[in-house]
Specification:
The complex is a heterotrimer. Chain B is of the alpha+beta class. Chain B has helices at residues 22-29, 85-92, 102-115, 121-127, 139-154, and strands at residues 2-7, 10-15, 48-51, 54-57, 70-72. Chain B folds into two domains: 2-76, Ubiquitin-like (UB roll) (Roll); 85-154, [2Fe-2S]-binding domain (DNA polymerase, domain 1, Orthogonal Bundle). Chain C starts with a strand and ends with a helix. The chains are: A alpha+beta, B alpha+beta, C alpha+beta.
Chain lengths: 795, 159, 170
């Protein structure tokens, strides 16, 4: 028997076009007669618009049109996650600001011109008279009396107030009776998703057919069609959205933005194709940001190290408007995860969504869960410190025991499967935990500051059951569908509604199909991204493509297999029950030499010369799949850092990750997802952070000032895994796209704090830049008594 | 302004706006869209090409500045239908995910190997200072460059 | 953003005052100014167009420059409001002059407050302070050069010139 294709680290099938320059991203497209759109954006964070003078721009050669809000006939940009029971306010988000701008970058006018330089030049000549209003960038401050108000009908800028609780009484009691309580104020700083490809859109209106085609950088073209058709006032079947090659998303290409709608509207208005492509600085200014929480959190425990309760109040910055999924991130995807992989009996999260005069926030890799895991792991380390317990032992003591089919936590979720301690032990063995503690003690004597951070996490992904989507206010379903079509010669077109953009499903999904029916991978094409030739699906985010679309794909393939089996039985003149299958061949039980291949069965079913009674011709199957539950991958990450005493530079010396996403279709691709995730999470811990000044001006507006992690900051990661299948997935798969990011931020953060124990430093704001670490060391050093155990002494 | 620029072995004469960036010349005048644009401040390296054999970020120079010079883009790297060892290595070792930074990574690393044919892992990481990747965490990019370097030591190829 | 600085001219206070009140001289000395046209109905206000490059943001800005709180020959306030490149620049500087300790020299001190909005803030804010220092030195250095040139001319052309137009003719 040949090596099983499932589980094989084959080379990616999408790569040849990507390594030769043959891939076509949105901005690579050009159409005859194409015009270019540039945006005029507000330089102020908060201002009334008094007057807009577009005369100069209108008169410039090569400028075709200039539009402001009064010219538009375009619906508002909707929010699509209307979290219930939270008194959610959804003030309108106009595509172009009419009377008020609410963040630097809010669009005020668009210019359409013959080339992109001209369009930009013309936009720069538009004069807008503003009456500048006060700005507020801190979500907690924005709720206080006297803060500038973004919307007349949203008092104190509070967009929503949402609570998840295992029972307030129990929580209160646990805290009252606790032997130890630790508290922290955590700032989850804003991050810039920074997909390497900025956003872009190209719209082509066909006035003859009344059809609109929009190529755009989307993680979910079917959602884009759904929402854009509404904004444009076009019937959905007349709108085709194509996400061609997409250069990364990390959440930032989930939302529907005004920009693509404006390009489409202008194309209709002018009856010519219109393209818009943002620059990186525009991307940093207007494409959604992630995180932005100010959290007041606390944990209660008994003196033996049993965690009895956790609670937190979160001020979540929503930015100036509610982005597509914005309200769902600090609530459903955050608060419900407050128990983590631990047997914590009482938990409560109060999340307050707040409007601020800043770029809207939305899902950024991990979306809500990195914040939850971070606060959990921070608090556990602090409890351990207070109890003088080893933080690993504290974790071990509180981990949920192994379970294979369901474990319900006090906040109501039912985790699918978990075996947390095994992953923990594996990671500890890899890093050599016991030996490290000795090495650390030795190093400290020499004035070297080594630290270790351990995170045991689990997370919720594979979004998710549509019933839950509905119950939590998500304005869509969360199922996926697929159509598998086998051509007469036995080649496969598998059309999926999800829309991968770097994750490699053109390879892994071909492996899934091949594994089920034996058609070689090279004969299988996965089609995605085009609403014109794919069935409905809700997109690629929340580590859901493999768990959800992958399940649909497997089930559809099994339908093909059963039809082929029936066809083979007919051709072999045997009963279907007597037909066995192996490696693409159907044969009568016990006579493997007498067989029909899947290709032969397909050809005969397609020719339909001699069909079994009641069977339709062709070899095609369609499958919808609505998952019965989420999936809950888990694992343990451990980092060792060394801090340079003279500079405060944090050197990441080792990084071990043991993750469990169930069986792995392609371990090389899984590892790639984890590598990238780790770097993004470490980016938050050590390097990245959005800075606004008090006027709401974005100071980290380019890659000169926003520290995207570079290769030299990282060691070679050491990966391993355990395999705990999801009980409800047809082949046991869980998602793995976000685990690296979710786990790595607290892992590295805790390692740094551990290294700084001699200085008594308990907490610092991220990112832990050299300057910040050095300052903290000096401060503590000075306040200790200023003479002994100097930072500089041993280095 | 009239320029004559050789790209991937073919000479192109064009009359262009003096302020046109080389990257826009390649993408919009010649339709060579393999070279991507990832930033507007010359940090990300997605637009790296070879200029007279050396790696340059094509967003940092004007097309008129390279008049008379030789450019190689990602489209011109494979020779006679055979992938360059660096392209092979990126494919073999999963050195890319979304692929957007990849052309720049491949062009930058091939140019780098011309100056340092057998770099250590640390040197490779250092050489990527001007090339950002948001997907891979760099690990497999570093491995790919190392593997390509080893292969090229055994069977040298022209860049 | 607060920016302070000083510059010592090798001329007496009246000469320095004169040139600092002379729009043509100022227009010549401000780095990048292409045009400075008096605003109708105002004596000390001009519409200016300047080409400035900071970091990767380079482009043309237009705005109003005004002198207020004039107390000859000691001080005045210079305000500038400009926009361009999807950015807004606002600045106000109190410029004071006094004789230096060394005879015949004059110290000009400025105390400025500037705010940036838009693209310039997001890309170049971090560089503005050092850029402002450089531009200020260029500005006052340019004025000093003009004084020197005028002095040379005055020596070769002995015709009497009114102090007000001296720099303007240079």
């Amino acid at each position: 028997m040949s090596t099983r294709i499932f589980g094989s680290g084959i080379k990616r099938r999408e790569d040849p076009r990507l390594i030769t320059g043959g891939a076509k991203y949105t901005d690579d497209m050009a159409l005859p007669g194409m015009l270019h759109m540039a945006m005029l954006r507000s330089p102020y964070a908060h201002a009334h618009i008094k007057h807009i003078d577009t005369a100069t721009a209108q008169g410039m050669e090569g400028v075709v049109a200039v539009y402001t809000a009064t010219d538009l006939s375009l619906g508002a940009v909707p929010c699509a996650w209307l979290v219930p029971n939270s008194d959610l306010k959804t003030p309108a988000h106009p595509p172009l600001a009419a009377d008020k701008v609410r963040y630097v970058g809010d669009a005020v006018a668009i210019v359409i011109a013959e080339d992109r330089y001209l369009a930009q030049d013309a936009a720069d000549t538009i004069h807008v008279e503003y009456e500048v209003l006060g700005a507020v960038v801190n979500p907690e401050e924005a709720t206080q009396e006297g803060a500038p108000q973004l919307f007349d009908d949203v008092p104190n800028n509070i967009a929503f107030r949402w609570i998840a609780s295992s029972g307030d009484e129990g929580v209160e009691k646990a805290f009252a009776e606790a032997d130890v309580v630790v508290k922290d104020r955590i700032v989850q700083q804003r991050l810039l998703p920074t997909a390497m490809e900025p956003r872009a859109a190209l719209a082509q209106w066909n006035s003859g057919t009344g059809e609109m085609t929009i190529w755009c950088t989307s993680q979910n073209p079917h959602i884009h069609r759904f929402i854009l058709s509404g904004m444009l006032g076009l019937a959905e079947h007349k709108v085709r959205v194509i996400a061609p090659e997409v250069g990364g998303g990390f959440g930032s290409k989930i939302p529907v933005y005004a920009d693509e709608a404006l390009a489409a509207w202008a194309s209709m208005k002018l009856n010519r194709p219109v393209k818009w492509a943002e620059t990186r600085s525009e991307n940093y200014l207007v494409t959604i940001h992630g995180r932005d929480h100010i959290e007041h959190v606390e944990m209660a425990a008994t003196s033996d190290g049993t965690i009895t309760a956790i609670r937190g109040t979160v001020y979540a910055g929503m930015g100036a408007y509610l982005s597509t999924a914005g309200p769902g991130i600090p609530t459903i995807l955050h608060g419900l995860m407050y128990c983590g992989p631990y047997t914590i009996p009482h938990a409560r999260c109060e999340s307050i969504g707040v409007f601020t005069t800043t770029t809207p926030t939305d899902a950024y890799r991990g979306a809500g869960r990195p914040e939850a895991v971070f606060l959990m792991e921070r608090l556990i380390d602090q409890v351990a410190r207070k109890l003088n317990m080893d933080p690993v032992e504290l974790r071990r003591k509180n981990l949920i025991p192994p379970f294979e089919d369901g474990y319900t936590i006090p906040l109501g979720l039912t985790y699918d499967s978990g075996n947390y301690e095994v992953a923990l032990d594996k990671a500890l063995a890899m890093i050599g935990y016991a030996d490290f503690r000795k090495e650390q003690a030795e190093a400290r004597k020499q004035g070297r500051y080594l630290g270790i951070g351990v995170t045991t996490y689990c997370e919720i992904c594979g979004l998710g059951p549509s019933q839950v989507a509905g119950a939590t206010g998500f304005q869509g379903g969360l199922w996926e569908s697929t159509i598998i079509r086998v051509t007469p010669t036995g080649k496969v077109h598998a059309m999926i509604g999800a829309s991968p953009h770097g994750q490699g499903e053109e390879t892994t999904f071909a492996q899934l199909i091949s594994d089920e029916i034996g058609i070689p991978v090279e004969d299988i094409e996965i089609l995605h991204g085009d609403t014109g030739n794919t069935p409905m699906g809700w997109g690629t985010y929340g580590s859901r493509t493999t768990p959800v679309a992958g399940a649909a794909l497997v089930l559809a393939t099994r339908k093909i297999k059963e039809k082929a089996r029936a066809m083979a039985a007919h051709l072999l003149e045997a009963a279907v029950e007597d037909i066995d299958y192996e490696d693409g061949k159907f044969f009568v039980k016990g006579s493997p030499d007498k067989f029909k291949t899947i290709q032969e069965a397909t050809l005969m079913a397609t020719l339909a010369w001699n069909m079994p009674e009641g069977m339709d011709p062709g070899m095609e199957a369609s499958q919808f799949y609505d998952p019965p539950n989420f999936v809950y991958p888990f694992g343990t990450h451990i980092a060792i850092v060394e801090i340079e005493a003279d500079t405060g530079i944090v050197h990441l010396k080792r990084y071990v990750a043991v993750d469990d996403c169930g069986p792995q279709i392609n371990p090389v691709i899984v590892a790639g997802q984890i590598h990238g995730g780790i770097v993004q999470g470490v980016g938050q811990a050590l390097f990245e952070g959005v800075v606004y000044d008090e006027h709401g001006q974005l100071l980290t507006g380019s890659m000169m000032d926003y520290a995207v992690p570079r290769a030299e900051a990282f060691p070679e990661f050491e990966l391993d895994h355990t395999v705990t299948p999801s009980p409800h997935h047809p082949v046991g798969l869980k998602g793995v796209g976000e685990t690296g990011t979710i786990a790595s931020t607290p892992t590295v953060y805790n390692a740094v704090i551990d290294a700084l124990q001699p200085f008594g430093i308990k907490t610092m704001e991220m990112p832990l830049t050299a300057a910040r670490v050095w300052e903290a060391m000096q401060r503590r050093n000075g306040s200790a008594n200023g003479s002994t155990n100097g930072v500089h002494e041993g280095s | 302004m009239q320029v004559s620029i050789t790209v991937n072995g073919k000479r192109y004469e064009r009359n262009i706006d003096p302020r046109m960036l080389l990257v826009h010349f390649l993408r919009e005048e010649l339709g060579l869209t393999g070279t991507n644009i990832g930033c507007d401040t010359s940090q990300c390296g997605a637009c790296t090409v070879h200029l007279n054999g050396k790696g340059v970020k094509s967003c940092t120079c004007l097309a008129v500045q390279v008049d008379g010079m030789d450019i190689t883009t990602i489209e011109g790297l494979a020779q006679n239908g055979a992938l360059h060892p660096m392209q092979e290595a990126f494919w073999e070792l999963h050195g890319l995910q979304c692929g957007y930074c990849t052309p720049g990574m491949i062009m930058a690393s091939t140019a780098y190997l011309a100056t340092n044919p057998s770099p250590s892992e640390e040197e490779i990481r250092g050489s990527l200072e001007g090339n950002f990747c948001r997907c891979t965490g760099y690990q497999n990019i570093v491995a790919a460059i190392k593997s390509a370097a080893e292969k090229m030591q055994q069977e040298p190829v022209g860049v | 953003m607060q920016i302070q600085g000083s510059y010592t001219f090798e001329y007496d206070q009246q000469a320095v005052w004169n040139i600092l009140m002379n729009p043509d001289a100022i227009a010549k000395a401000i780095p990048g100014v292409k045009e400075m046209v008096p605003l109708e109905g105002e004596t000390y206000a001009w519409r200016a167009i300047a080409k400035i490059g900071v970091a990767s943001v380079s482009g043309t800005y237009s705005g109003i420059i005004r002198m207020t709180e004039i107390e000859a020959p000691d001080r005045y306030r210079l305000t500038a409001e400009g926009e361009g490149q999807q950015s807004v620049i606002n600045g106000t500087a109190l410029i004071t002059m006094q004789p230096a300790q060394e005879a015949g020299k004059t110290v000009v001190v400025w105390d400025a407050e500037a705010s940036l909005a838009g693209k310039l803030a997001s890309i170049a804010q971090r560089l503005i302070k050092s850029a402002a220092g450089l531009l200020s030195r260029q500005f006052f250095g340019g004025l000093a050069k003009q004084l020197k040139a005028a002095e040379k001319e005055a020596k070769t052309v002995p015709a009497a010139t009114s102090s007000h137009s001296m720099a303007g003719e240079s």
